[in-house]
Design goal:
heterodimer, A: about 475 residues, alpha+beta, eight-stranded mixed beta sheet, three-stranded antiparallel beta sheet, 15 helices, about 40% helix, elongated, B: about 475 residues, alpha/beta, eleven-stranded mixed beta sheet, 11 strands
């Protein structure tokens, strides 16, 4: 039987506010346990939450970026359950009236086409603390530094049909929150966490299959692997006469498998009700309009603009708009070089490769955009060949100065004087009469390969500086005589 | 000295008739002598009180007195006090010392008041007789075999027995007004949001409100002035600045329209109480007020609605008492579930457990709409009743309680009868209105309270009506025997 996979994602993005969502304590990561938890975070008797307005602004920015309905009146609710790292015995979240309603994003599929994925809602909530099970000799330690950190929970529609689509969607959301500067997106530190709801159904069936929720997917790679595994598990189960049960499954990256954490029957009744300690959040249209007006250009818009104004292919545009800093860098290279396509290649291939090798962020690149633009300009105006340009780039990367200085000091300027090139060509032809003879008598299909020998000799003699096109043209005309 | 009002004490301290240390010592002596028979305090902080009194004396000598400099008061043990145990009347918090002061506590500190100690209360403010306290029942100073009311029973008894000049209380369904009525003192529950709830251990967050308890409206006004006002730590606290309550005391009440809800004077009201109330209304008429009958047709729904909303909120508010971070933890827990179950089973008393169970049930999947949501709709109906009433009248008068103080042990095993002792006060909390109780007579030698209900943030008008009444009568000066 043909099976169709259906996936929906729940993404928790930690909002990059300085202080917590309901208290003044710091949200910085990595402090000593329990040093960033104040009376409110500890849930001491008598304390009350006070909403951090910055978290609201960030949530609205996200809503605006995915063209969602913004809730003019959203309500905080208590989600009640007992857990040691949940100090109050309830999590303050939003239930019936979230701050961000239905929206959508576009993902790019492998075949180059694009697909819209619906975002059901996004709501504000507080994070819990952490239970530490190691180093306590059979006991458990509680670190409440993270308790009260603002989260935006982003819930998608079950619109994805493969693990690849799910990853593309997760990457798109990751890209959006980073563009907006509302989340640092660090998956290892847990600032960006994905849970996946996965089900399968016979191809063509309308009704959804029973889903399992996958947790603990802290990288895009694990997300993809866990979904693929789960899909396989569900299909095997059904095909062998079993039934999928609704449950939460934990992904174990070491064993590369998912295992059951709790079933629906064991699930908590969260007893949601509106939190009486917090007033409903009421927003006015002017506040929302000001946030929309202030939004940076979002990835979808930027990508389309890159395709239209720079003539880039969709995959290149996608790659160059992956991050705001990269896109800005690319545009600066275009501006100073005047060649969008050449600039795209250099930013993606040479610079991208160099950065990747040392694991460096574009913002820390030793070669600034203007310098790279200058180098690209030298290729464009035929001052140097692409091959020489790689040498120049390496020197720039090593900090030897800008392109012009390096070209000058190393005497790398391309020879375009046809007289000078002709002299070298003649020299090579004279020195290799046998090869000239062989060429002239060879089959036409073999000639292009044989021409390479002469080109190589000329380039070698000119230390790579001769304009390759001119060398080619001259050799062809002289050899055909 | 103990019969002097707060106003008189302020003057006496400023005139140098006595120092705050002398006054504080005097009250501490009275507590030591009389409180064993009353049990109105859970914790007496003699050392802290004398230190605060010393500072107050110094400030007064330098002419830097604050409004309540040197005046000895007590706080209900529901308000967190830095360094002094805050038990909330529960074994759960028998070992709890808060690392911070409630906003109400810090405001009294700033105003120069001296805290004598923390008063007894029903456990987590759940009760109407002060019998649910882990620290034992409070005895009514008027008759020690009777209850003082609750949950602010310790504060009411301490004020009535002159074991402090004034005390704070909290009121979720009548917990200031009912004990004030049963102990013959004046108590005010302000409009929801008038006083910060920060640092006040939550019972039912949408209903809880702190307020002052003293002998007279004049003293209550002085205390409310200290307590009221916006607090950035409490989002539900009103932004508007409070008016000058002392100034509003002088308002004339000639022409004041007082509404008597007919539903409040029917079956179940003690005849002695009814007679005292009738006399009080005659007094108000004599002072120029106009008394008219009104209707609050949905009041009969208030007790059932309250016993859904309050337990629902409490079931969530009390989840933090899990034995993990503070409060009672059972001995040698075997695992997490054992830790939760035994810590809570041992730490909470019977009434608290009953309400947690009711509330958990009311919020459960499948029952939420039928209980919690319906109760919220009833709140709207009740608030609408009051809105219509305040189109006709300026304030509403009613009994504060159906009868006078009942005997200790009389109702404790019959929760429904106990719950009905708040039948006249609960609607006020559900609507969020201000209400107060003032003493207006004796029935069977026990105090009778009159409840006055005002419109939102109209505490000034309530205080002026009460004050004019107290200028014309002296029920508020009546003191129990055996307190000298």
């Amino acid at each position: 039987m043909q099976w169709e996979t259906v996936i929906g994602l729940e993404i928790h993005a930690q909002l990059a506010t300085k202080s917590k969502i309901f208290s003044g304590a710091s949200t910085a990561f990595g402090a000593e346990p329990n040093t960033q938890a104040c009376a409110v975070d500890l849930g001491l008797p008598g304390v009350l939450p006070v909403l951090n307005g910055e978290a609201v602004t960030m949530a609205v920015k996200f809503g605006a970026a995915i063209e969602a309905e913004i809730g003019l009146r959203s309500v905080f609710a208590r989600k009640n359950y007992f857990y040691p790292d949940l100090p109050k015995g309830y999590q303050i979240s939003q239930y019936e009236s979230p701050i961000v309603g239905m929206g959508q994003v576009e993902i790019l599929l492998e075949d180059g086409s694009s697909k819209r994925i619906g975002v059901t809602r996004a709501h504000l909530e507080e994070d819990a603390g952490k239970s530490l099970h190691e180093d306590f000799h059979g006991q458990t330690g509680i670190d409440l530094n993270r308790a009260g950190t603002p989260l935006l929970e982003i819930v998608s529609e079950p619109d994805m049909r493969s693990a690849k689509e799910a990853v593309a969607y997760a990457r798109r959301i990751h890209q959006i929150v980073r563009y907006l500067g509302i989340c640092d997106g660090n998956m290892q530190e847990g600032s960006f966490r994905c849970d996946a709801n996965v089900s399968v159904r016979p191809m063509g069936q309308e009704e959804l299959g029973t889903r399992a929720e996958l947790k603990n997917l802290n990288s895009f790679r694990f997300l993809e692997r866990a979904i693929n595994h789960e899909v396989e598990r569900q299909i095997d189960l059904i095909e062998s006469g079993g039934k999928v049960v609704q449950e939460t499954r934990l992904y174990d990256a070491n064993k590369d498998e998912t295992r059951s954490m709790r079933s629906k029957e064991e699930a908590n009744d969260y007893r949601y009700f509106p939190d009486p300690d917090l007033l409903p959040v009421e927003l006015d249209e002017a506040f929302i309009a000001a946030i929309i007006a202030d939004l940076p250009e979002m990835p979808d818009t930027k990508r389309h603009r890159f395709i239209v104004s720079y003539g880039l292919s969709a995959p290149d545009a996608e790659a160059l708009t992956a991050g705001r800093a990269l896109a800005d860098y690319y545009e600066a290279v275009v501006a100073s070089s005047g060649d969008a396509k050449l600039a795209a290649n250099w930013v993606m291939v040479e610079l991208g490769g160099a950065l990747n090798r040392v694991g460096m962020d574009i913002l820390d690149s030793p070669v600034k955009a203007e310098s790279l633009g200058n180098l690209v300009a030298r290729i464009k105006d035929d001052s140097i060949s692409g091959k020489i340009a790689k040498q120049v780039f390496e020197a720039m990367w090593a900090g030897e100065g800008d392109a012009d200085t390096i070209i000058e000091s190393r005497g790398l300027k391309q020879i375009t004087d046809s007289g000078a090139i002709e002299a070298v060509v003649d020299e090579v032809l004279t020195a290799n009469p046998q090869q000239v003879e062989n060429y002239r008598t060879a089959d036409a299909t073999k000639q292009p390969k044989m021409l390479g020998f002469f080109v190589g000799q000329v380039m070698k003699k000119s230390q790579g500086k001769a304009n390759p096109q001119q060398v080619n043209d001259l050799l062809l005309s002289k050899l055909s005589l | 000295m103990h019969n002097q009002s707060i106003t008189q004490l302020i003057a006496g301290l400023r005139n140098g008739d006595y120092s705050s240390v002398e006054l504080t010592r005097y009250f501490l002596d009275r507590i030591e002598r009389l409180d064993p028979g009353l049990n109105s305090y859970i914790t007496v902080d003699a050392e802290g009180a004398l230190a605060q009194a010393g500072i107050a004396d110094q400030m007064l000598r330098q002419g830097n007195g604050s409004p309540l400099s040197g005046v000895p008061i007590a706080h209900k043990d529901i308000f967190c006090t830095q360094g002094v145990r805050t038990s909330c009347g529960s074994r759960m918090l028998d070992n709890f010392i808060a690392p911070y002061d409630a906003t109400v506590v810090s405001r009294f500190k700033e105003a120069g008041a001296v805290m004598l100690g923390k008063t007894n209360m029903d456990e987590f403010a759940m009760g109407s007789s002060n019998e649910t306290s882990f620290y034992g029942p409070v005895h009514n100073p008027w008759d020690r075999a009777r209850v003082p009311g609750g949950s602010s029973g310790g504060s009411a008894a301490a004020v009535a027995a002159r074991l402090c000049a004034g005390a704070t209380g909290t009121d979720t369904g009548g917990s200031i007004r009912q004990p004030a009525a049963l102990c013959g003192i004046t108590g005010l529950k302000p409009t929801y949001g008038r006083v910060s709830r920060y640092g006040m251990i939550a019972f039912a967050s949408s209903l809880d409100q702190a307020g002052p308890m003293a002998r007279s409206a004049e003293e209550v006004a002085l205390m409310l002035q200290v307590m009221a006002g916006a607090d950035p730590r409490d989002s539900t606290c009103a932004e508007e600045s409070p008016p000058d309550y002392a100034a509003s005391l002088g308002q004339d009440i000639a022409g004041l329209r007082i509404g008597l809800p007919k539903e409040f004077f029917g079956e179940g009201l003690d005849s002695g109480v009814a007679a005292s109330l009738e006399a009080a209304m005659a007094q108000f008429r004599a002072l120029g007020a106009e008394v008219v009958e009104i209707s609050l047709p949905n009041n009969h729904l208030s007790v059932p609605a309250y016993y859904v909303v309050a337990p629902a909120e409490c079931s969530s508010n009390l989840a933090r008492f899990d034995g993990v971070r503070f409060g009672h933890r059972c001995h040698a827990p075997q695992n997490l579930e054992d830790l939760y179950k035994r810590s809570r089973a041992e730490g909470f008393g019977k009434e608290v457990k009953r309400r947690i169970l009711i509330g958990t049930y009311a919020l459960s999947a499948g029952y939420y709409d039928a209980y919690y949501l319906k109760a919220q709709r009833i709140r709207q109906l009740i608030a609408a009743d009051f809105r219509r009433a305040f189109e006709q009248v300026d304030i509403i008068a009613s009994p504060a309680t159906p009868g006078t103080a009942f005997a200790i042990g009389e109702k404790i095993d019959d929760p429904v009868t106990m719950y009905l002792s708040d039948i006249y006060t609960i609607a006020v909390n559900l609507a969020g209105l201000p209400g107060m109780s003032i003493p207006v007579g004796l029935a069977n030698s026990l105090p009778v309270g009159l409840q006055l209900i005002g419109n939102y943030f109209d505490e000034g008008r309530l205080l002026s009506a009460a004050h004019r009444f107290q200028q014309a009568t002296d029920w508020h000066l009546a003191a129990p025997a055996d307190i000298d």
